[in-house]
Specification:
Elements (H helix, E strand, L loop, with lengths): L4 H15 L8 H14 L5 H10 L4 H9 L12 H17 L7 E5 L5 H13 L9 E6 L2 H9 L1 E2 L1 H5 L4 H7 E4 L2 E4 L1 H4 L3 E4 L12 E6 L8 H14 E8 L13 E3 L7 E4 L4
Parallel strand pairs: 1-2, 1-7, 2-6, 7-8
Antiparallel strand pairs: 3-5, 4-5, 8-10, 9-10
Helix pairs in contact: 1-4, 5-6
Bound molecules: S-adenosylmethionine.
The site of S-adenosylmethionine has 24 residues, from loops.
Length: 275
């Protein structure tokens, strides 16, 4: 049976309230294509029964599974390349020069999905900044979805996944072949701590940060949610820290405390100097 208008509305509201993801009225097909397989797996007849269950227990495990199923987890190694060039050529040299006294860096990769983005950052650090390998760098990667985090922690990728963006020399250096898959070597894996963090909640990250990657996730939210998330990022960022957004995202007209860093196509922002 097709999804009814009240059930569609109920599901879209639930997803929005719990994740910030805005699904328009025209996204019924998306709800069906993502949630019918979930209903089947848990032995429900269809979306009518799924929605009825949710109405009885709107904040249980099922609601969580529904929200996770509605997230888009598309990611790949060195996605868009420019942010990682900017990290290598502008951001890290500047921060390393400034933090020579404390000898520490704090990095957060939010909405990290299945891990390709944080492992890309870790490879940039290892490849080009060996001098700070002994610094007690804190590198946290988070996502809302437990399933993608499980894969990220495992660091196991198919041939198809490593073919997307990962240069062959880095594959050979930082991964080992395991059956048909490739596994991230322990040395690289140990650099990243994966944790669950819903961006709608208060950020469970202590201290301040030098670099925040929060790419290709704000596009799913409305302006108020973007504002709230960028305000929380701003509070966590050191005054001379850097924020990276996705290619289709901007702080412009959302949070004017940020200015674009002078690096071509890097998607990188810094805080305006306080007068
Ligand atoms: C398209 S992926 C982006 C992955 C990576 N940042 C990149 O650019 O390749 C978006 C990720 O945002 C996560 N996400 C969506 N809503 C979220 C929320 N409210 N809190 C935290 N993560 C969220 C999804 O689970 C998904 O893994």
């Amino acid at each position: 049976m097709p999804l009814t208008a009240p059930d569609s509305e109920y599901l879209r509201t639930l997803v929005r309230n719990r994740s910030g993801i805005v699904l328009g009225e025209d996204k019924g097909y998306l709800l069906e294509s993502r949630l019918l397989p979930l209903a089947k797996v848990i032995g429900l007849a269809g979306l009518e029964e799924l929605t009825a269950r949710l109405r009885v227990e709107p904040s249980g495990q099922l609601a969580r599974q529904v929200v996770e199923a509605m997230t888009t987890n598309e990611t790949f190694f060195f996605r868009d390349i420019h942010p990682f060039e900017c990290l290598k050529k502008l951001v890290l040299p500047e921060l390393i020069a400034k933090r020579g006294g404390e000898r520490r860096l704090d990095i957060w990769c939010a909405a990290a999905s299945t891990g390709q983005e944080p492992y890309t950052i870790a490879m940039v650090l290892r490849e080009h900044f060996q001098s700070i390998a002994s610094w007690p760098t804190r590198f946290i990667a988070t996502d809302l979805a437990s399933e993608v985090l499980k894969k990220a922690r495992e660091g196991r990728y198919s041939q198809l996944e490593v073919n997307r963006g990962l240069p062959a020399p880095l594959l050979i250096k930082y991964f080992t072949k395991d059956g048909l898959d490739w596994k991230v070597k322990d040395d690289l894996k140990r650099m990243v701590e994966f944790k669950e963090q819903n961006l709608l909640d208060s950020f469970a990250i202590s201290g301040q940060l030098d670099v925040i990657f929060i790419r290709n996730v704000l596009i799913y939210f409305d302006v108020e949610t973007k504002k709230a998330i960028l305000a929380k990022c701003r509070k966590l960022l050191r005054p001379d820290g850097f924020l990276f957004l996705g290619g289709a995202e901007t702080t412009l007209n959302i949070d004017d405390a940020f200015v674009r860093a002078d690096y071509d196509k890097g998607g990188c922002y810094r805080l305006k100097a306080t007068p």
